[in-house]
Q: What sequence folds into this?
């Protein structure tokens, strides 16, 4: 369950982008060599790795596996292996809702209480569209301290909803954009209520089966799934098996698993009307506009933005032991998916490969201070103590703030430590990541931080 790139996918790029160094631009006729060089640099042969696919105009132009699918058995990754896809699940949920809409079984403007009559909306009008666009204001359960102790417990859908339904609203529906896994869990509940099927069965019968996605499933840790890659997290300088998470928890926000081949089939289907009409998809790929008239960079289950002048439709996924990213560029009919079995992702590679496959030269994001004119302020290091802790930028992608001597340091999951340079007692620049961090203090406690990067303001709640 992970944040979308053009809006909250930018969170993944913080620090992770530092792992991707600019490479010499390969000749236009040497795309394969350029991609292979970057993947070998990022994913070492004896580490957890990745599968990648690059498709242009319906033809696979690159497909390969890197690194290890299972460290304990010494099994290498092959491109047909199955990975958890985390929040890429959200686009399947969005299309499920659009299918039901086209069948006349719901409207995006319907209030959620039409289908979930017992849900406490606290006097607000919360619509299905608010859930699809992360603008509902409902508290996201993956940022709640109460959720983490439950990871190993299988939960009924009603029990999962009970975790967050009585929490105070974060804001009025439509007032802000804030990445929200609770909203997509509720969408899954609506799919089940309207269709009379479980979410898993609905997606299997109405999407996977018709498209021939035979290696895509609602994940089940007990089920024997041939070609399933094991997931890993960083453990100091090495790796450990990822912490267990009952797959009843991510539900319609992040419980699916797939292969790069099946995701390519999915992308191809989105150029047709096999599942839903193009008019419906066009709306899903249009940035939602907030109550104040300001556009977001998110539609329904996808992030929407531009990449070097081209329309970009994208989403990433992050869940225990796995991160992934997928980019589609409709103008050049390019699709790139990278699925990894480790936390930390692949930095800018998905975007880079999409640009190269489009026949353009990749422009490495400029590394410059977020606020170059702001001098480093003299701040009493004693004040840093209240800022230390773990902040969740996305599920399983944590920014850990530590104090080392008279310096404040930040380290994202699986990445190197970077110094945070104070502009004030609560605002810090991260020059090498072209980012800025603002800490939110309520009373005498630090409750969250806001990452400012690429024109986006991304909240991260303090969880420890």
A:
């Amino acid at each position: 369950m992970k944040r979308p790139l053009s809006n909250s996918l930018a969170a993944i790029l913080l620090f992770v982008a530092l792992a991707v160094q600019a490479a010499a631009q390969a000749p236009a006729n040497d795309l394969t060599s350029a991609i292979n060089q970057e993947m070998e640099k990022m994913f070492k042969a004896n580490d957890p790795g990745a599968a990648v696919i690059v498709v242009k105009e319906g033809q696979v132009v690159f497909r390969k596996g890197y690194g290890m699918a299972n460290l304990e058995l010494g099994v290498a990754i092959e491109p047909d292996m199955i990975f958890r896809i985390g929040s890429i699940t959200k686009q399947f949920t969005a299309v499920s809702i659009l299918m039901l809409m086209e069948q006349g079984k719901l409207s995006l403007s319907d209030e959620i209480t039409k289908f979930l009559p017992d849900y406490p909306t606290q006097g607000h009008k919360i619509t299905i569209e608010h859930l699809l666009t992360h603008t509902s204001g409902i508290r996201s359960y993956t940022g709640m301290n109460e959720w983490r102790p439950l990871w190993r417990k299988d939960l009924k859908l009603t029990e999962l909803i009970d975790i967050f339904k009585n929490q105070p609203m974060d804001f009025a529906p439509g007032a802000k954009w804030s990445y929200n896994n609770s909203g997509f869990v509720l969408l899954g509940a609506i799919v089940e209520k309207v269709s009379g099927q479980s979410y898993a069965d609905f997606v299997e019968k109405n999407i996977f089966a018709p498209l021939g996605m035979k290696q895509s499933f609602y994940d089940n840790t007990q089920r024997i799934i041939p070609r399933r890659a094991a997931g890993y997290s960083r453990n100091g300088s090495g790796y450990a098996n990822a912490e267990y998470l009952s797959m009843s928890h991510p539900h319609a926000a992040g419980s699916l698993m797939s292969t790069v081949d099946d995701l390519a089939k999915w992308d191809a289907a989105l150029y047709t009307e096999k599942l839903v009409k193009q008019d419906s998809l066009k709306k899903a790929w249009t940035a939602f506009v907030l109550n104040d008239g300001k556009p977001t960079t998110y539609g329904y289950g996808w992030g929407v933005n531009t990449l070097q002048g081209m329309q970009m439709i994208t989403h990433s996924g992050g869940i225990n032991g796995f991160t992934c990213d997928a980019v589609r560029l409709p103008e050049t009919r390019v699709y790139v998916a990278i699925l990894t079995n480790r936390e930390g992702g692949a930095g800018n590679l998905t975007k880079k490969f999409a640009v190269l496959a489009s026949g353009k030269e990749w422009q490495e994001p400029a590394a410059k201070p977020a606020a170059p004119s702001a001098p480093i302020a003299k701040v009493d290091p004693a004040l840093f103590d209240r800022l230390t802790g773990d902040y969740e930028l996305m599920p399983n992608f944590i920014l850990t703030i530590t104090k080392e001597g008279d310096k404040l340091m930040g380290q994202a999951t699986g990445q190197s430590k970077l110094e945070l340079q104070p502009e004030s007692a609560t605002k810090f620049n991260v020059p090498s990541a072209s980012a800025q961090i603002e800490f939110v203090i309520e009373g005498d406690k630090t409750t969250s931080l806001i990452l400012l990067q690429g024109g986006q303001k991304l909240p991260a709640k303090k969880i420890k």
About this structure: DSSP finds ten helices and 21 strands in the chain. The mean pLDDT is 88. The longest helix spans residues 181-195.
